[in-house]
Amino acid sequence: MLVIGLLAFVAQQINPTNPFASWVNPDANRLTGPALRDLIISGLNLGVMYGLIALGYSMVYGVLGFINFAHGEVFMVAVMSSWITSEKLFEAGLWEDFFIPSLLLTVMIAIVVSTTTAVVMERIAYRPLRGSPRLIPLITSIGVSFFLQNVAIGLFGPGAKRYPQLPEWLTARRTLLWIPGVEVEGTKILVLVVAGVSMAMLWYYVERTKTGKAMRAVAEDKEIAALMGIDVDKTIVRTFAIGGAMAGVAGILWGLLFRSVVATTGFLPGIKAFTAAVVGGVGNLGGSMAGGVSLGTAESLGPLLLLEPMGVKGPTQLKDAVAFVLLIAVLLFKPSGLFGERLSAEDRT
Amino acid sequence: MSTIDTAHSMAAPTAATWSPSIKRLAQTAALCGLGLVFISLIGMPVKLNSRALIEPILSRGYASLAWVPVMFGYVVTKQVVLEGMVAQKRGASDVAEGAIVGAGGGLLLGILGILIDNFDLRDPLLNWSPQLLEFITFGNGLGFGVMIWVVIGGLSGAAGAGLHLLPATIRRFIMVIVVAVVGISFLETAATDLLQGLRLEFVSDGIYSKTSGLTIKGSVITGAIAAVALYGSQQLQQRRLTRLSQAPPAASGFTPGAAILNSFGDARSRLKVGLGILALILLPMVLGGIMNELLANVGLFLLLALGLNIVVGLAGILDLGYVAFFAVGGYTAAVLTSPNSPWLTPELPWFVAIFIVVVVAAIVGLLIGAPVIRMRGDYLAIVTLGFGEIIRLLFLSDWLSPMFGGAQGITNIPGVQVAGLANVKGTDPRAVFYLVMAFCAFAIYVSWRLEGSRLGRAWMAIREDESVAEAMGINTVNAKLMAFVTGAILASLSGAIFAAKVGSIFPSSFEILVSVIILVIVIVGGMGRIAGVMVGAAVLIGVLGGPSQPGLLQELAEYKLLIYGALLVWMMLKRPEGLLPNVRRSRELHGDELTQDAWIKSQVAAQDEIDSDGAGSEVPS
Known about the structure:
The complex is a heterodimer.
Chain A: H1 2-14, H2 19-24, H3 33-64, H4 71-91, H5 94-97, H6 99-126, H7 135-156, E1 161-162, H8 168-171, E2 173-175, E3 183-185, H9 186-208, H10 210-220, H11 222-227, H12 232-258, E4 260-261, H13 267-280, H14 285-307, H15 319-333
Antiparallel strand pairs in A: 1-4, 2-3
Chain B: H1 2-10, H2 15-41, H3 44-48, E1 52-54, E2 58-59, H4 60-76, H5 92-118, H6 130-137, H7 142-162, H8 168-186, H9 188-197, H10 201-207, H11 216-245, H12 256-286, H13 289-314, H14 323-337, H15 350-372, H16 377-396, H17 401-404, E3 416-418, E4 422-424, H18 429-452, H19 454-464, H20 466-471, H21 476-502, H22 512-525, H23 530-544, H24 560-574, H25 583-611
Antiparallel strand pairs in B: 1-2, 3-4
C-alpha cells in the first residue's frame, strides 16, 4: 500500500507534463493518463494474484517454518487443469453456450486439483521431514518444484497452450465503480472481485471459525496446541489445502487474464508471490495481500515511472528485476515485512 | 510409511491383522499401478523402446517399466527390524504379497490400455497415443495386453519380494549382476568408444549386438565377470579383516600396530590417488571426441560444484543464485578476450584475463554477499536466487546490451593459448579436458587445504550452530563472507573456461536451472566432502548430462530434469547426507536416530537384567 501510494503520488506529480522525465531523458515516452490508469489496473490485477499465491507461502511458513518453494507449481497445476477443462468444454460446445456454468465447473476442477496437489505434496515430501533442519525441507521443495514442472512438460509438452476465447460481454470495457472516465476490461474487474471475495472468505475462515483458531494455535506453538487436543497433522494438512485452494483461485484468474499457459508458468509468479509474502510480513494474511498488491503495482509501474526517466533503455524487460530488488530491499531494511510477521514461538528467535 | 512398516513387522500374521494387511496391499498395488501409468504417460517407454537392453528379449522401453513392480514387491515385504525385536519368519506369503502388488499394478496399466483404446485424450496428454497402446498390448489385442501385464507385474513383484527370501550374500550378487548388465548395456556408446580407443573392438563386437543392446551371450559374460569381481573383492576384504584382527594387541596409550597399519593405509590410499590421476591423464588419449567432450563437461560442473560445496557444504549457506558467478566469470572473460565484444576490446590472452576474472568475481561476490550474509538461512536462499535472476536479466537487457550484447551475447571468443603448446578451443575437447582438469585439481587442493584450516573449521562450526560458533569467538560474518567469495571465485573460473570452450556466450546459458543442478550434484554426492562432490558430478553430469550438455544416457535427455527433481527429493527423504557422506554432517542429521538406538539398547539391556532368563525381550513403550 505504501508503495502504491508513493508510486501513485509520483505518477500524479510527473504525469501532466512529466517535467522530470523529459529533463533527464528527453526521449522517454510520456505516460498519458489512460496509459497510467491501465498500468495501475493491470498492476492491481497482478498484485491480487500474487497476493492469493502468497497466502499459501505465508500460511505454510507460519505453521511449519519453511519456504515451500513448490507452491508456485501448485499454482501452475491449477492453470494447467483449468486450461484442460476449458479446452474440453470448448470442444464440446459448452463453453460458449453455457459460459457461466462451465466457468464454475472449471473453477471447481482447478481448485480441487491444486488442493490435492498441495496435500499430496505435504504427505509425501514434507511430512517425513518435520523437525529436520530448516534448509532440508526447503531443498526438498526445490526438488518437488523441479519435478512437477518437468512432469507437466512430460505430460503436456513444452509448448504454450491457448485458452478458448472468452465471451464478448466479459471482455468488454466497463466503467469501474461508476467513476466516470475509468473504463476497464470486464475480466480485470472480475479478477479484482473474485480475489477480494476469496480473501474475505479466507479471513473469515482463519479468524472466526474453530478450525481457523486451531490453525493459528498450531502456528503459534505445535506442542502446546497438541496438548490442547488439536490434531496437529490434520491442521497442517488443512493449511496446505487452503494454500492450494487459494493458488487454484489465482490460477484460474491467471488463465482468464492471460489465456495462455506453459509448464514454467509457475516459477516467476511463485517467487514473486514469496516476495509478496515477505514484503507484507510472513505469517500475516492481510500483509500478504497488501504485499502482493504493492509488488504488482511496483512491477507494472516501476519500470516506466522510475527506470525510464533514469535513461534505462527497454525498461519493461527489467520488471522482474524490479520485483527482486524490492525483495532484497525489504529483507535488508525491514526483514519482518511492512506489516510485521507472525511466526511460531520457536522461529521467532 | 514407516509406521505402517513397523506395525507390519510387529504383528503376528493372525486373522485379526489380515485386514489392514489387505488394505495395505491394495494401497501399494494402486501406487505401483500409478507409477506404471505415470511412466507410460510421460512417454518414457515408447521413446526408449527403439533400442534393446538385451537384444532379442528385453527392450529398454519394457525395462523402464519392469523395475517398478520389482521395487514395489521388494518394498511391500520389507521389514523394519528393530533392535531387540524378534524378526518375523519369511515365507511364501511374502512372495504372494509381492505378486499381488505387482499384478495389481499390471492390471492398472492394462486398464490404461483399454482407456486409450476407447477415449481420445491426445489433446492435452501428448503420449496418449496409438504407439503407447501398441506398446502395452504388444500389438496383440487388448485382452492379451491386460493379461500379459497382470502376469508380468505379478512375476516381477514376486521376484522383488523373493529377494528377501535369499540370503544376503546371494541377494548382493544378484543386485551387482543386474546393475552390471543394465549399466553395460546402457553405456554402449561410451564402452564402444573406449574399447575402440584401446584397440579392443573385438570385445565390443562380441558382447553388443549389431543393432543395439547386449546380446544374450554378452549379458551372460558381463554378469559372470561382475560376479567374479564381487567374489574377488569380498575375499580380499575378508583377508584384510583377518589380518586386522591378528594385529598385535594394543598396548596402553600408544599403539604401534595401529600406527603401522595407519601409515600402511595412508600409503595405499596415496597409491590409489596416484593411479586415479594417472588414469585421468591417460584416459583422454584413448577416448574419442564425444567422450572427451563429456569429460570436459563433467570437469566444468565439478569445478562449479566444488565451489558450491564450500558455500553450502562447509559453511552451510544455501546459495541458490550460484549461477550468477558462473555468468560473471564467463562474461568477464568474454569481454576481456573477444575481439567482438561491443564495449571493451582489450583482447587480452586468456591466462592474463583469468586474473582479472578472479578479481571481478571476488568483488561481485563481496557486493552480493555483504548485504545478504546476515540474513536468516532460508531468506538468504531466496535472495541469492533473486540476485542470480537479476544478473541474468541485466546481461539480457537492452539497457546493458552496448556492454554485453544483450540476447545476442558475445561471440568469437578465442581459445586458451597455452605458452606455445596448444590453443585450447571447444573444437578440441581433449585439450579442454586437460585444462579443466588442471583447474579442478587446483580447486580440489584448495578445498582440501581449506577444510583443515582454521577458516574451514570455523565454517563447519558455523554450519553446526551459528550462535555457538559466535560465542566461541568466530567472526561469523567475515567467515561466511569468505566462503561466499571463495565459492564465487571457483565458479568464475569455471565460467571463464566455459566461455573459452564454447567460443560464444549468451544469457540463456545462465538460467536458474544451472544453480539447481549444481546443488543436486553437491547434495547427491555428499555435502561437505570433496570425494562425494566428485562422484556426484561424474554420475549426474556424466550419465544424465548437464542443463544443455548431453550425458551418456542420451535417451533420457528429455527426462533428465525430471530425474534431477525426483532425485533431489528422494535424497532429502532417504539419505540427506549424500552418497559419500561427510562424517560430521551425517552425525548432525541423524543424531536423533543414534540417541534413539542407544536408548532402545539400554532399555533392552535393562529389561534383560530384570528378566534374567533373557528370553522375551520387548521394548517397553
